[in-house]
Amino acid sequence: MVTNDKSEIGAFKTPTLREIANTAPYMHDGRFGTLEEVVAFYNKGGIKNPFLSELILPLELTAQEQKDLVAFLRTLNGEGWQHVKAPEEFPQ
Ligand code: HEM
């Protein structure tokens, strides 16, 4: 809808993972309430559809590896950036 380019259907801006433990719900439509659900989604290789890149594959992570990945995501919080304001316009 933004570019009218069919090859970009299903493409989204890759968001930062900073403070990800504090910014639920996740994805452009807020479909996941928890990081566990996000990791399970990636572990399955996303949702099959005609626009899915062939590079996106099931990860085959064990339950423990998925837990470890969620634990890592929860470490991406911190202090020192909170004064930064969102830009008010796109760069020219
Ligand atoms: C296991 C590996 C990955 C993890 C743990 C991960 C984690 C996440 C998380 C937590 C979000 C939600 C961000 C939010 O809603 O603020 C997200 C969204 C996103 N990630 Fe990943 N990601 C992984 C792999 C990838 C890869 C390989 C790509 C691209 C090739 C990618 C591209 C994106 C994009 C475009 C979004 C936004 C999707 C949307 O808005 O619906 N991610 N990711």
How would you describe this structure to a colleague?
This protein has 92 residues and is mainly alpha-helical. It has one domain (7-73). The protein contains 2 helices and no strands. It has helices spanning 35-43, 63-73. Helix 1 crosses helix 2. The protein is flat and about 40 Å long. The protein starts with 34 loop residues before the first helix and ends in a 19-residue tail after the last helix. The model has no long low-confidence stretch (mean pLDDT 93). Bound molecules: protoporphyrin IX containing FE (HEM). Protoporphyrin IX containing FE binds at residues 12, 14-15, 17, 20, 23, 26-28, 35, 38-39, 42, 69.
Instruction: Compute the number of strand runs.
Output: 0
Rg value: 16 Å
Count of domain modules: 1
Ranges with pLDDT <50 over ≥5 residues? none
What's the short story on this structure?
This protein is mostly helical and 92 residues long. Helices cover 22% and strands 0% of the residues.
Structural features:
92 residues, mainly alpha, 2 helices, flat, binds protoporphyrin IX containing FE
Show the helix and strand layout:
Layout: H1 35-43, H2 63-73
Helix pairs in contact: 1-2
The structure holds protoporphyrin IX containing FE (HEM).
Residues 12, 14-15, 17, 20, 23, 26-28, 35, 38-39, 42, 69 line the site of protoporphyrin IX containing FE (HEM).
